[in-house]
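*** Fold description ***
***
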Amino acid sequence: MKKVPVIVIFCLVFLVGCTTNSEKNISEQKDDGASWSKKRTNLFSSLDYPELSKIEANKLMKEKFDLTMPLFFERSLALTQETLLLETPAQYAIKSEAENLTIRGIVIGKKTTDQTYPGLAEAHFQVNQQKQQVYLTKQSIVIQCSASDNKLQGETVRLLLRRLGEAMELPDLDQVMKQAEQKMAQTEDDGSSQMIEIYNDSEAAKKQQSASRILTIFYDENNLVKEIDGFISIE
């Protein structure tokens, strides 16, 4: 039997290691939450589930559609409930047709005559038959409060922004929050309804072909926070 040179064995081991690491990196990139994708050749059936519990929604996503519940979608719903002390469980809805599937989660607190604190989260999936992949393309959360004497102010707003920033995995979050404090203070001094962007990397993400993240606050004419939006897109 001929002996295989040591250098040949070393090269083969090196190449196998590189291939394994490469496959691992590609897998990690596909499952990083914001840019999730999975192999799929078939389009979605035309289905509509308007009223679902969390357990029912999870089961359908896994067993019926072979999809994973999006990470930011789940986190944003949970932190909205926790931070605003919403008492009712989230309600879910799933609608699919051809290339597209949308899952929605709604949380609404105890209703009174003067105020309500709703949160609405959505996630969108899209099938690309040419690439034989299904992609998670968008995730969003909208947190609203319409009452004039609402509690969506002060430390509650700051806590929500930080927790949303953590869920969105914003880089340099401490610096983002520091700049947010400055923008919010300036808005309070102006005393007019307006929108301020806490974070927006859409232009850079477009150039890098990566997921973009936008975090925004809306004020009403009484200088009260009426809405906080978080948005992640891979398109």
User: Anything to note?
Assistant: Confidence is low (pLDDT under 50) at residues 6-32. Helices lie at 6-30, 54-64, 71-83, 154-167, 173-190, 202-208.
